[in-house]
Write a structure and sequence with these properties.
The chain is α/β, with parallel strands linked by helices and about 240 residues long. It has one domain: TIM Barrel (Alpha-Beta Barrel). The protein has 8 helices and 8 strands, in the order βαββαβααβαβαβαβα. The strands form 2 sheets. Strands 3-4-5-6-7 form a 5-stranded parallel sheet. α5 crosses α6.
């Protein structure tokens, strides 16, 4: 599918859902395969080989393609499964101890097998901080993650950690579209990134406000991507 002028990129992060392969296949079958916007679904790695959808993404990877690395996922193996995008540096992984050095290695490894990294930034921010304080944190994260990397080849997802729902995307604090737009503009201007998404409890009620912002190129919904009716509304919104 060729991108239209106003077409956005929507990446649904299923996280550790659903529980069974049967449920995952059923969920994917309910998502519009030819939506208005470029749409990617990221099921758990265990289901990637069986879930059918035109554009698949992975939730994480390792930075080497093979070796004695128990429990890790090879970028090359993801490539052979048809994965087009892969999340890197998600706040949940950073919370578990993922370092900036590890993130940079993953970004580089994904690019080497021609998978587009979706670099998540915004971990460590708080709702009380102003835009300048937020950009300082993001600048530090991007400077580390993009060391030696062509920033024009990656996607950045701004996810203010305080706005990420733990399951219900409709009951959580939200960043404003104006704030998200300012951060997206900063990332593009400062680092030469071509595409910036907003992640942080995006749902069918608030998605359009973010998609209408000129420097926000799409969304990274979590909980809403598990609700086919809501997700289909998001991926078919005119903006």
């Amino acid at each position: 599918m060729k991108l239209k002028h106003n077409q956005k990129l929507i990446i649904g992060n299923w996280k550790l859902n659903p529980l069974t392969l049967k449920e995952a296949v059923r969920l994917a079958s309910k998502i519009d395969p030819q939506p208005l916007h470029e749409t990617v679904i990221c099921p758990p790695t265990l289901f990637l080989s069986s879930v059918k959808y035109p554009r698949l993404g992975a939730q994480d990877c390792f930075w080497l393609n093979k070796g004695a690395y128990t429990g890790q996922t090879s970028p090359l193996a993801l490539k052979k499964l048809g994965v087009k995008y892969c999340l890197v540096g998600h706040s949940e992984n950073r919370t578990a101890g993922e370092s900036e050095e590890m993130i940079q290695k993953k970004v580089s490894a994904l690019l080497s097998v021609k998978i587009t990294p979706v670099l998540c930034v915004g971990f460590g921010t708080t709702v009380e901080e102003d835009d300048l304080e937020v950009t300082d944190i993001i600048k530090s994260q991007l400077t580390s993650a993009l060391a030696g990397i062509d920033a024009s080849k990656i996607v950045v997802a701004y996810e203010p950690v305080w706005a990420i729902s733990s399951g219900d995307p409709y009951h959580h604090k939200m960043a404003t579209p104006d704030h998200a737009e300012k951060i997206a503009m900063f990332i593009k201007t400062k680092f030469g990134v071509k595409k910036v998404l907003y992640g942080g409890s995006a749902n069918s009620t608030n998605a359009l406000e973010f998609l209408e912002q000129p420097d926000i190129d799409g969304l990274l919904p979590g909980g809403a991507s598990l609700l086919p009716k809501d997700f289909n509304q998001i991926i078919n919104m005119s903006c």
